[in-house]
Every structure is written in C-alpha cells, then in structure tokens.
Amino acid sequence: MESRRSDLVPSEKYSTPAKEGTYKKLLTYDKVLRKRYTVSGLGPRTHDSEILVKVLRFWLNDHPTSAKRLELILSDEEGEKIQATVHVSVYEAYDCKVNEGDWILIKNFNVTTQTGHCRAT
Predict the structure, then answer these.
(1) Calpha distance 108→70 (Å, rounded)
(2) Which of 42, 48, 77, 78 is least surrounded, with the fewest CB atoms within 10 Å of its CB?
(3) Residue 42 in contact with residue 28, Cβ under 8 Å?
(4) pLDDT per residue as tens digits for the range 36-61
C-alpha cells in the first residue's frame, strides 16, 4: 500500500484504546461509507476505498538513497497483515501521531506490488 494525499485520518472515534472486536462497531458509526475493504480484499485495482486497520509496528525509514518515509505493518480484524508506506511529507501535513496498537482509518491510497529485497509481511 502506498500513500497519496490525505491518507491517515486521525479521529477520536477510531482512536485507541480499542478492544478486539470493535472493528464492526466502528463501521456502524461511519454514516458516509465509501467502499470499505479488508486487507485480503485489497488489490492493484483498489481505488476510492478506505480500510480500518490496527497498527502493529511502525518505523521511520530514513535511508540516504531514498525519500524519508514511515513504514507500517497493519492488520485488520481478521488478522490479515499488510505493509504500508506513508511519505513523511503526508504524515507531517496531518500532524497525526500513530502509536502501535492504534486503530486508524486510511483513505485515498494505492496498492502496489512489493519491490525490493525485504518483505515485512
């Protein structure tokens, strides 16, 4: 999953502490639904969608040969995992703080094939 503009939506209704099983409850509170996916339902043709996921791990990738970005390992309620990349400029623009264990709603994203030598999921 690769970021575009307005990726992370910090919202009190999706913030931690969230208990296991709250995914379905949170869906009912969102009255303006776009096409909502689970991780297993994502693919390269996924667009105009959103996904509610739990942040399992995150780290800042500040390699000198590439753009600074935030890397995340995310999981939906079914336990399916995916690695996500958010460019730091997008992350900082929303001044949102992500913590491990938080449930976050991600919108306006692209799904791409993992390239590189390391797959985290």
Answers:
(1) 16
(2) 48
(3) no
(4) 778 888 887 776 678 899 999 988 88
CB count in 10 Å sphere of residue 10: 14
User: Among 72, 95, 76, 88, which residue's Cα sits nearest to residue 38?
Assistant: 76
Q: Which residue has the tokens 């209704």?
A: 13
Which residue is it, tokens 């390391």?
118
Q: How far apart are CA 100 and CA 98, in angstroms?
A: 7
Helix (H) / strand (E) containing 117? none
pLDDT tens digits, 79-116: 999 998 888 888 777 666 788 999 988 887 888 777 66
* pTM for this entry: 0.64
Residues 6+ apart with CB under 8 A from 116: none
Q: Cβ distance 115 to 9 under 8 Å?
A: no
Residue carrying the six token digits 């991780």:
39
pLDDT reported for residue 81: 93
